[in-house]
Fold:
Amino acid sequence: MNRISLIIAALALPALALPSAARAENEDILSGIDARSKEAADNARKIWEWAEVGYQEEKASGLLKQSLRTQGFKIESGVAGIPTAFVAEAGNGGPVIAILAEYDALPGINQDAKATRSPIDGKQAAHACGHNLFGAGSVEAAIAVKKWLEKTGTPGRVRLYGTPAEEGGSGKVYMVREGLFKDVDFALHWHADDENSAAARTTLANRSAKFRFRGVSAHAAGAPEKARSALDGVESFNAMINMMREHVPQDARIHYVITNGGIAPNVVPDFAEVFYYVRHPDPDGVDAIWARVEDAARGAAMGTGTKVDWEVIHGNNPLLVNEPLAKMMDAKLRQIGGITYTPDEQKFAETIYASFDKPSNKLGSQAMIQPYSKSLGYGSTDVGDVSYATPTVGLRTATWVPGTSAHSWQSSAASGMSIGFKGVQVAAKTLTLAAIELYTNPELRAEAKAEFDAARGPNYKYKSLLGDRKPPLDYRK
Structure:
């Protein structure tokens, strides 16, 4: 352990200095998570195989609900107008602690659980962000916390939120907007990764939309003067945005993909569509850039003789970090420890690792806990909106081979086998200890809520970056 890690661990010691009876209770609860490791792995593997994309996660949602129902949770399905969203609750009185669960897959990528590039024929999506692990691990934590509440008689409720369509669908935003977190005292989450860390890392706010250009079709050679190409509109729009990149703040991100550009070269397309993301650390920054993007779309349509409209698909606020909670989570993660590979897993990992060019983490670091820090991350998540509704904290575990990037075939491969499943166990145990700490430590609860109130400000009013639109249940169809 390096010097920074030792300092942080020392600072966290009071939270870990439990009476012997409490330590024994915790150890018993953690042993219970180990005893259910096969069920957790089976759930993670099934969801990995199904690879259902956003708002279509019927099997995954049903499986997780069934696991919770058999453990005595009360289930409310179809919340916030989303058929695959649900809330499961157990316990009575006391603080309400939410645990978030995701389970949507990514379209456009595909990989078997093998250490070399091995697409599965006919499969159009994969769990290349590890949400199959996220869902399974969070459910195990919720079950363990319920058992602890019952065994100790501690007043409190644990609530598992089944949250669909994190990948570009903002499922949690609609749940926040519907007030489903109003009575939650704290929210816990985790994510698959190539390292173990509970660092306080914020995210970028973002918004996306599909820009649809409409023109006039004609024979591209026989009557080009009669046509107005919708694809010209898209390409002109993209050219303007690519020039605009030079004149946006350094931390901003803009990216796109053409989802429809026509079918045949000799037919001038009368319809074309491009899907855009805009990101910035501040929601106001997203708004400012977005206004310029809309102006560029109008200009592209005017210049090409086409028409354009757009549909906002999703939008997320940045993650509001809470350092008292983050330091507590860091201490719990260090108590649990990292990942140890079997010989077969080591061989798998070495083969995966050889496919990387200049990996950011070294093979072997899966056994370590990264130093605590506070930083800006460049991804986006709808957990951000939850973090403005209630104090929120998370962690990441080494479910993937060190050096693996999210949204890659390597991450999908590890998410479907034992390396990923071991990360599930670390996450479930850490989340369970964090929840227990929050139930039993009123000083920590008060400190975290004070920081939360100060960070939001006295006149805070929630604003969704996706406006008042209904959930885009067909955005992946």
Remarks:
- The chain has two domains: 3-201+318-456, 205-316.
- The first strand starts at residue 74 and ends at 77.
- The chain has 14 helices and 14 strands.
